[in-house]
Structure formats: C-alpha cells, structure tokens
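@channel sequence for tomorrow's demo:
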Amino acid sequence: MTSTTSGNEIHDDPDSAAALWFARLQGDDVPPRVRREFERWLKADARNMAAWDDLNRTWNGVASLEDDPAFAALRADALSAGDKRPYLNRRTLGLAAAGLVAAVGGAIVGKRWLGGDASPASPAEEPVFSTAVGEHTTFRLADNSVVTLSTDSAVRVNHWSVERRLTLLRGQAFFQVAKDPARPFVVAAGDKRVTAIGTAFDVRMDPGKLSVTLVEGRVRIAGDAPQGERRVEMSAGSRFVAAEPADWAISTVDTAKESAWLKGRLVFDGEPLSAVVAEMNRFSERKLSLSDPALGATPVSGVFRTGQIDAFVAALKTYGLADVGRADDRQVELVRPPTTRGQAE
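structure tokens (generated this afternoon):
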C-alpha cells in the first residue's frame, strides 16, 4: 500500500504532508534522492517543520495503537501481502500508520486525527493510495471493507459521513464491502457512481471506458447522460461497460475469469493476441509490441502470471503463435512464427 507522496501529489497541508513523509521515510532503504526531497520540503516553510515535530511527538506517544483493531487489521494485511515472507519493521509500521488514514474514513494521520480534530477533511487532505506498474496491494477500511488495488492504480479515501465514499482515480480496484444498510458504500469513477450496501465488485477505468464487474450482491450505477442522470442496477455475475455517456451495456461474464488478477493471474479464452498483449502490458514495465497488425488477430487461450513476460513469450513460441524479433530490457517485439512467414512469402 503506497500513500502517494512524490512530485505534485504531495499535499499542500503541512499536517497531511508530514504524515505521508513519515510513512515514506521509514526503513533503511530510503534513496538519497527521497531524503533530499524531504529536506527541501522541511525547510520550505516553518509550518512544515512544526507539523513534522508535532507528528513525531504524537507518534512517540501512541504505543497503545498496537491494540487498536483497525491498526491490527492493517498490520495483518501488510504482513500477508503478496508472496513476501512475513516480517515487521519500522517501514511496515510507518505504512500502517499512513493506512490508518483510510481506517478512520478520510482523516489525516497527524493533528487532524491523532489530536482529535473532528472537522471534515478537505479534498486536498484526503489520502490517496496507489500502486506502481506490476504491483497490487490490499488494505482494510474502518468498517472492515477490503480494497485491493491492481497494477498502476490509485484510490482516494473521501471523508465519511452518511455514506462510505471512495474515488477511483485511475486503474482498477476490487471492493469487498462490509454490510452497513445505514451507510451505503459509494465508489466514484469519472462521472459514474457505484453504490452498494454489502457486496463484492470490481471497478476498472480505461481511456474512454469504465467497467464494473459484480461478483456477488447487487449494486446501482448512476451517471450523467444527455437526458439527465441515468441509473441501472446490476446482479451478481454481470459486467457493466460504459464507453460513452450514452453507451451503457450489461452482459453476463465469468466472474472467476474476470477477477483472476486478484491471485496474480490473467485468463484468456480465445481473445485476440492484440488484446492479450495490451492486458499483459498493464502489469509489466517491460512492454510487448506486435510487428504486424495481422498477428494481433491470432486467438489466444491460457492462464498466465501477471508480470511474467518471458514465460508468456515462451508459451507463444511453444505453441507456434508468435516468435521474438527485437528484444531488450524494456520491450519485446512479437513477430509471425517461421512457418507463417514462409507461407506468406
């Protein structure tokens, strides 16, 4: 779980920024560049120094947080994430502290939350959690709902009051929603809003397209349309796709196939190679490309691990679907297999 604190994503509010810097600086492997960025932030404004001092004093006095249920849940998520061996160090604790931003429903670790300030957080103060390309991570909210972020994704935890609200900023996330009829669970994505009470669903944002896959329960989707607000309801085992404001469609899908990414797998059943390549590329910094557009029409079926480009390419070669042209550490070019090239010639 990463609380975004780099570049222009650092909060302007000193308390918010101090909390996020705190999580980022835990551990012995912090790059010198990051430490220099922190020093510049610290010296840029006297309020930054004051916020940093306040947060360190507060952190030193919150040993009792170890027994807090929300903290325990976040720590358990950190220890069990991915295939890493369980361990607990200062960086894990720091990330869990930043994770408590989510656990209290939109407050900020710092004076606003630890000091008991009950005033609502402004949008600039609401925490953003993100993943890099090839990563996925899980964190737990205060109501015991669980959010899993896919590759290159980001979600904002908004202030909670009469509803539990999050905003998907980019990418894909899976939500396992704890039941609370009194407070609907709302995920905003672009101009659409997905509302649930107790359910499990996936929301994905692609350029010009939004899709929602419902694994269990029911959800309602609302969004802007030329004639005003439009609403549809979904039942389990279906997927909603909106490519344009007026182009909404719901179809039946294999939810196990669609949610396989949660286990680090991608499942394809006769999809064109061009689509398969695009999906594999989402999970890897090393990108695949097609030398021949006609090659992209080749149907592909199989189960592949996310991020494992070499294994995927080896499978294509084994089954005679494609061969390798140019390849380096950043990209792999797929070309027609020798038999196909010979027939074309």
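heads up for whoever presents: The two ends are 51 Å apart (CA to CA).
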